[in-house]
Amino acid sequence: MTIEPDDPRLRFNTLTWADVDPDRHPFDADAVFDVVRALAPAGGVPAPYRYDPRHRFDNAGHDERWNWQRAMTIALVEHYGDWARGWAAQTAGRTADGALVVRWSGAQDSITTPDETLDAVAGALSDWRTFLEELAELFERYLPLPADPRAAAKAWEATTASLVATVAARSGEDEFWHPVCVLALKWFLTVAEVPGEDHDALVDEAVGGRFWSYVSPLGAEVADAAESLAAALTGVTPPPDDAWPDTWPQDWPSRRSTELPAAERAPRILPPPVPDALATWLRVRSATRWEHATEHVTGPARTARDGIARILSNHRYNALDLVRADVAEGGPLTFARLEMWQRKVLAVTTAPFRTTPAYARDGRERYAYRDELPELFEACLAEATDPAVPLPSRAARVYLDVLHFHPFADGNARSAAHAVYFVLAREGVVLDRAAALLMTRWPAADSHGAEGLARLIAVLIQQTAAEQGK
Fold it and tell me: What Pfam families does the annotation carry (predicted)?
């Protein structure tokens, strides 16, 4: 039976404290391993994910594994209650030696052998229950809150900081901690009997974009969020002489930093803006003399050695088998083809065009995003097979297009290598050597470098043809 991902029984972020309060829901930790085995979905544990270079990505197997996880969740919920929905929330538990370990990281990574998989489910459920019990103890420790507003503000600040720290400590490599943190704060508002139903707005205002999944919170960010929530609930704010200047820590968007009069604030030193490498590349692209950079070259040209394949073999995944199949099929280079190859490169089910700015070289290069970029990129790819432009120039241009459009979340250099391989191979050229092409950096602003790359590819083609003739 297929279970849809949006099935209401799977919704983790709608859990209330009444749903998860350990005092309301009995749990026998000693029996959990036997219970999980008894509840496991019929048909057994699916086969684990294995990369197979001979085949395309196994979408059916991928869907089967995630459907099994959803079926396991529903079985646990029906047996234990709604609180069990959180078993897959990647909340770490302690091993015998005290180390924190996430026992379940999703069906793609955590389904292994049947016994190991069911043990991981049971362990993850137990870890989630332990986390809920820790929260219950923390709530009891801090409640009831003092009646005096200033004392209440301090209590709220301490409680919020403790809650965030508790969640972050259980996050296990900072995975998925943000939604758990938001839920824990809302649960405490409920237990503390904060009036009103708009607890979402209170927490959103306190968090204020400070916390993100996959990023561990800074201590300063935790303190600022705690103070913000306390101020919202009690109306008590720190006195003016307790304000934190804008310069400490540098660029910290703290509430306190805005309380100082403008004349007293030290000027904030902003880093220089990172130029848009994509806009620079598009200017260079339009100014480059692609038709005149090289002479026309025709294939076939290949030897027993495949230079691009040799370099890509250093990566765990590449998609040259798919590229070769598309070359044999014929047709132009399209984003749909790039996306299909990239799914294999990244071992994912989808590889859509990015929808946000992208960065490279530790943030020193920025590739801005505009709504028209996917359409513009598609038009650039279509030019890669235009016979009016010499083959080396077209290969160089598409290689730089993929690098500087930076269409994917990851693996863009490999995508560029696949694109240039396709453009050359469809005209019978497989480079004998490619290190000078793939192992060299080609900046977006270098117009001479763009033409130089075209001439380099022409030389590599000539060298391959010469080796072929020997």
Answer: Fic (PF02661)
